[in-house]
Write a structure and sequence with these properties.
Elements lengths: L2 H17 L6 H26 L1
Helix pairs in contact: 1-2
Length: 52
């Protein structure tokens, strides 16, 4: 997944959480969101080191 795709997916999931505050799958979406944010941080760090 590219950095832009990760960013877009994070945005989509954040919007979903705002739109569905009491949905039964909320914890799954929150977990997916945490995983994507972690992947985004890792990708950002990898890109930083590649550019150094």
């Amino acid at each position: 997944m590219t950095a832009q795709q990760i960013k877009n997916k994070i945005s989509d999931l954040e919007q979903w959480l705002r739109d569905n505050p009491n949905h039964m799958n909320r914890t799954t979406i929150e977990s997916d969101l945490r995983d994507l944010r972690k992947a985004q941080q890792i990708k950002s760090k990898a890109n930083k080191y590649a550019n150094d």
